Each structure stands twice: as C-alpha cells, then as structure tokens.
Amino acid sequence: MDLAYKPTPSAPIIRIMVLETDMPHPDTYSERGSFGRILHEHFAKAGRAHHPPLGVEIDQVFVVSEQGGRIPTEDEFEGFDGLLITGSVYDAHGDNEWILALLYLLRTLWVNRPDFRFLGVCFGHQLLARLLGGQVRPAPSRDWELGHCRIMLTPVGQRLFRTHDDYIHLHQMHQDQVVSPPTAISAGPDMLSTDTEVEVWGHSEHTAIQGLYIANRLITTQAHLAFDEDMVKRQIQMRVDSGGIKDLEHADRAAETADLEHDGVEVAKAILRTFVYDDDGSGLS
Question: Name one Pfam family in it (predicted).
C-alpha cells in the first residue's frame, strides 16, 4: 500500500483501496500525483458535502505487473470498506497475466467479503462487468466516445444521483464498452443470487451501458468523475500520440470541451451514499 490519507478526526471514516491500472500524464502526475491521490482529493470534497460529513481514507496499489506493479493479497483489504478500479489504456476484455490475476483476486473478494463495495471507473467499470459475466468489446463503429458528454439517466440513475433531471454530464475517454450487462445467470450462483438486480443507471448515444448498480454491492461508471480540464486534454493527447485515437478532428473537438462543467462530484457523492446514508433533507432516497 503506497499512501494513506487521514480524514477529519470527528467524521465517520470510509476506507477505500484504489487499484491503479494506469498512470496519468507525466505533467498531471507531477502536479497532482497518481490516480489514487487524485481520486482521494475528489472523494474528500464529496465527503465534506455529505450529511453528516464523511472522512475518506484511501490506500492505493499500482497493479499492472508488466509495468512494475503488483497484485495485492486478499489480506491487504482487511479494514477497508470497498475498492475502486481506475481507468486504463489496457483492454478490460484482454487476457494479460495481470488482468487475469486481478480478476481472480476480485472473485475471491466478492465471494469472501459480502459486506464489501466494488467501484469501477472506465476500465474498472468494464472489468467488474466482465467479472460478473457481462460482455465487453470495442464499440461496433470502432469510434471513441471523447470529451464532455451528456448521459441520459434511467429512473435508477435519477434516484442514485438524487435529481429530477433527465441527464448528467461527465468526461468520456473510451473505445471499449460493456455491450451486455451481467445477470445472475452469467455471473453464476457463487457470485449473484437469482433475485439480484443488476441495474443500468444511464446511457448515451455512443454507449448503451454507462454504469451499473447493484444495491449495497456495486456501482460503476464508464465516464470519468475526477478529470479536470488539463487532465482531459493531456489524456486525449497521450492517446493521439500512441496512435490509439486516429480521428484527429474528433480529438480536437473533444479537447475543446475540456473546460465545461461536469457532474463528477455528484457521482462521487452518490458512491459515498452506498456506504453511509446521506440525510440531505431533499426527500430523495
């Protein structure tokens, strides 16, 4: 475990293990640190808005073994309330040794820790869908969903984000997507009981499954919740430079939306509510 962040002493504490599956752009890393640190800052802001306020404590492990990372042991999750898997340049449908090892760890934790919360962003969303038998593959058109994006909410999404609006906005950066959600049948009886509901909370024109929700167990988002303007532009440029994004006009248009406001804090607040109920007086559960 690389870092631990100390919450406000008087606040209830939520402890999350961040499994880092990628590194940010070098300039972002020098300014804001790794994705674990960036997510800590983001969730700490959401925790301060909780009723009552929550402290958020995060440890992080970089898990890409072919880049010097490691897969943690099950024992290292003792004392944690949940885990979060970050975005990545890798394919969640791939069979890299570290991806298969991570899936084995996640399966073990899922079976042995029924109290645990499983959170996923982008790659993490896709990997958790795969864990439960959902299908992940590139978009049929092979195009990317990039930049500031409107996500239409299902009734489940409206309830999760405590809004009467039909949509939220988040930053996107993906070509792969979940094309069929998990079910109790696809997951198997060891993973999901037959009465478990796996719900989709939103969709966009590009991607039909923008996030998954299992009550008291799992919440994922295809879009990124903690990206700022510089991060959006830099992450797009990294994928252009690597040859991943070939449509340069699309990339430029997406970069021009990097400064637009998004609802990432609202998503983080919704995630924290899966750990501790937030009595904000809105009348929305």
Answer: GATase
